[in-house]
Amino acid sequence: MKAVVTGGAGFIGSHLCDHLIGQGHEVVALDDMSTGSESNLEQLNGHSRFELVKGSVLDKALVDEVVATGDTVFHLAAAVGVHTIVDKPLESLRTNMHGTENVVEAAVKHGARYLVASTSEVYGKNDADGLGEDSDRVLGSPLKSRWSYAAAKGLDELIAYVHGGDSGLPCVITRLFNVVGPRQTGRYGMVVPRFVDQALAGEPITVHGEGTQRRCFGSVFDVVPAMVRLLEAPAAYNRAVNLGGLEEVSISDLARRVVELTGSASELHYVPYEEAYGEGYEDMRRRMPDISLAGALIDYEPRWGLDDIVNSIIEHKRAVPSQPQAALAS
To answer: Is 161 tagged catalytic?
Structure first.
C-alpha cells in the first residue's frame, strides 16, 4: 500500500511507520511536531520508501496534498495527554475535531480507505467489567475540560462513520485502551513512562489520587499490527473496535511493579487530583476493555504481559535517557 500516517512522528505513529515499512509498504508521515519527535523516526531517515512531511492536520490544503499521494490513511494525529487537554482545551478541540474532518474528507475525495484512531476515553466514567463497543458512554459535565477530549473523540468517530457509510469506502475506528511502550514520554501525563522516569532517577513515584483506580495496559507491539490487519479485514469496515490489554492493575500496584522491575528505592508519593490537574478534575475508577470483537475479526490476542511492557520501557529509557518528569506530575 501507499500509506499516509498522520501523527507519524508520535509514539504510536512512529511504531506504525516502522511496521508498515517492515511490511514493504510506502509511507508518508505527516506531523506538526507539537508532541511528536524526529528522533522517533531516525531509524527511517533516508529510507527510499519513507517520507516525513512537517505540517498540521488543520492545514486543509496540505492534508489534501498529502492524502492524494496515498491509497490508505491512518489518522493518529490528535491532542495528546491529560495535561494538554486540561491546559489547552480549545486548541485540543480544534485539533481533534477539525483535524479529523480535514483528513477524512481528503480520504473520501481521493478514494483512500482510512482508519481513525479513537480512545477508550469515549466511554467516560462507565466502569463496567469489560467495556464493549456498544457500551454506554457516561460523561461528566461538558463544562469540565476533562471531558472535552471524550466529547471530541466521540464526534471524530461520528465523522469517520458517516463519511464511511456515505462514500462506501473501507473505514475502521479503533478505540485504544492505554497503549504504552518504548518512545512514549511521561511529559503529557502518560503514567507508565512517568513512573519509569521517576524510578530510574530515584525520585518519589507520584501517584494521583488514592491509587485505587484500575486500568489495563496494552503494548504498542500488539496494537499496531492489529490496526493494520483491521483495515485489511472487510468484516471490520465501518465499525469501532477496541484494542488493548487485559491484565488489570491498580495504579498503586503499577507503581510498585515499576519500582520492583527497575530495582529502584523510590517511594510512592500520593498527590491529590486538584494539585495535579486543578480544581474539579474527575478520573475513572476503572476501565477494562472487552476485546472479543477484535478477536473475532482478526484473531487479536495480546501477547505482551504487563511486566514485558514495563521492561520494554525500562530498557528504552536506559538506552535513551530522558529528563525526569516529576515536576509535571505535581
So the answer is: no
